[in-house]
Amino acid sequence: LQVQRGTQPHVAELSALRGLFSASPLALSGLQVAHARALSRVLFLTPLLPAPILRHRLRSHVLEIRQLDRALARLGTRELSEEELRAACYLRGLNSTHLSAGECRAWLEQWLGLSCRLQASELSLLANSLVLLSLNYPRAR
């Protein structure tokens, strides 16, 4: 509802919904094909595949992002150059063209706060957060 109103949800609010995304119909394995295709487009994956393959590729890609997130959390965002910050945001769905390095870092730390808390069974929430946390981010529209 917040996203429809043009605001961005807080990580704590998304975390509270974890259970909804680990069971059907919102778990990656149970997503409707149209939903899986839309998420695939956000991740720059080919959306025109049979449903089981599409869901498998989506799961694999989001799992890879989650693993990168855990490594980045250990490293710390302060170690990234501005170019690396922007690339990390872009990979996670945020258009950082009009953001400062500090704004990119703040968003990425917020993202990591969610990603690093999620279990593998909650990957659907992470995939959907690519949209939920970036769509209405100030100055990134």
Fold and architecture overview:
- It is a single chain.
- The protein has 141 residues and is an all-alpha fold.
- The protein has one domain (11-133).
- The chain contains 6 helices and no strands.
- The chain has helices at 11-15, 33-42, 51-75, 82-91, 101-115, 123-132.
- Helix 3 crosses helix 6 (123-132).
- The longest helix has 25 residues, at 51-75.
- The radius of gyration is 15 Å and the shape is globular.
Summary of the model, kept short:
By secondary structure, this protein is mainly α. 53% of the residues lie in helices and 0% in strands. It has one domain (11-133).
Structural class per helix/strand content?
Answer: mainly alpha
Q: Please estimate the helix content.
A: 40-55%
Mean pLDDT: 88
Content of β-strand: under 5%
Q: C-alpha Rg, in Å? A: 15 Å
Largest beta-sheet details: none
User: How far is the N terminus from the C terminus?
Assistant: 18 Å
- Beta-strand segment tally: 0
Looking at the structure, what is the overall shape? globular
Number of domains: 1
The number of helical elements comes to 6
Could you spell the SSE succession in H and E letters?
A: HHHHHH
Which stretches are poorly predicted, pLDDT < 50 over at least 5 residues? Answer: none
Sequence-ordered SSE layout with sheet pairings:
Elements: H1 11-15, H2 33-42, H3 51-75, H4 82-91, H5 101-115, H6 123-132
